[in-house]
Structure to design on (217 residues):
């Protein structure tokens, strides 16, 4: 897997990351969602540099100009519900992309820390020969993305796969490397060192879905 990690660089992206981690700023759910969306926009721009381009001629009222334009057929696939603001950030830039959505959540069958990821809802176009962009803001253990990849198999074989995440753990990155094709590219704003015994990122930021849309039962 090719990993593009941006918290090792000095850029405006660090401002957005610091704000979504800040408990005081997190109280404003609109601002939290917008910051996730802006992170998605930045990562979309960075990812766009690796797409396939073709030179085309654009005719203006005063003449013609050759321009390189992207040729990939993109499918943006987001994990509900936390992935929606990140999805919107990507869609702001890849406005002609097709869209897919998948519901995945943790289920703790007992009182312990062990859990399984359950996929219940999935809507997607055909993926055959297309560039699949999976978006999940929190890449904790990597099990969600593993189950999502398994669910996608009945919808065709993508030509390329990209993963877009906001914050991940080192363990999560290591796990998805073992599951996804080696040419998969991961675009991630920040990577934290540890996970709790229940598989939550430390220091992370909390529950991205709850911070975006309110607490659930």
């Amino acid at each position: 897997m090719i990993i593009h990690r941006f918290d090792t660089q000095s850029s405006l992206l660090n401002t957005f990351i610091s704000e979504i981690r800040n408990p005081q700023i997190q109280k404003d759910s609109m601002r939290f969602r917008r910051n996730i969306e802006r992170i998605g926009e930045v990562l979309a721009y960075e990812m766009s540099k690796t797409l396939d381009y073709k030179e085309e001629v654009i005719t203006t009222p005063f003449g013609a100009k050759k321009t390189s334009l992207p040729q990939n057929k993109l499918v943006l696939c987001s994990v509900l519900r936390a992935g929606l603001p990140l999805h919107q950030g990507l869609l702001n830039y890849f406005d002609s992309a097709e869209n897919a959505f998948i519901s995945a959540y943790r289920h703790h069958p007992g009182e312990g820390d062990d859990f399984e990821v359950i996929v219940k809802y999935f809507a997607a176009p055909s993926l055959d020969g297309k560039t699949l962009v999976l978006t999940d803001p929190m890449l904790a253990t990597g099990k969600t993305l593993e189950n999502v990849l398994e669910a996608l198999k009945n919808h065709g074989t993508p030509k390329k796969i990209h993963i877009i995440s906001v914050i991940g753990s080192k363990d999560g990155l290591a796990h998805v490397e073992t599951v996804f094709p080696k040419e998969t590219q991961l675009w991630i704003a920040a990577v934290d060192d540890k996970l709790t015994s229940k598989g939550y990122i430390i220091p992370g930021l909390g529950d991205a879905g709850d911070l975006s849309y309110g607490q659930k039962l």
